[in-house]
Amino acid sequence: MLGDFKGKLVNAKVIDKKFIEGDAGIPAMGIPGSPAKYLLTLYANDQTQVVDVKSNFFKKIDVGDEIKAYEYKDHLSIEQDKRKSGWD
Fold it and tell me: Which CATH number does the domain housing residue 63 bear?
């Protein structure tokens, strides 16, 4: 058996959100920039996980909200874009 690729679907609570501003770096000196990060801290079943999300998803979510997440043995994961298949 190949196992469960999706994990178990659970409700995860957003317990923190943080925006980290990006940095342009100094390309002329070979110092690369870093992109902005939109981070959500999720909690489900005694497990916390920091997840890097897209800016439009980040703006729609507030601390205290519950969102659907996939729980694996050692982490939580979310889908940010609604699939266009009939499996939703």
Answer: 2.40.50.660
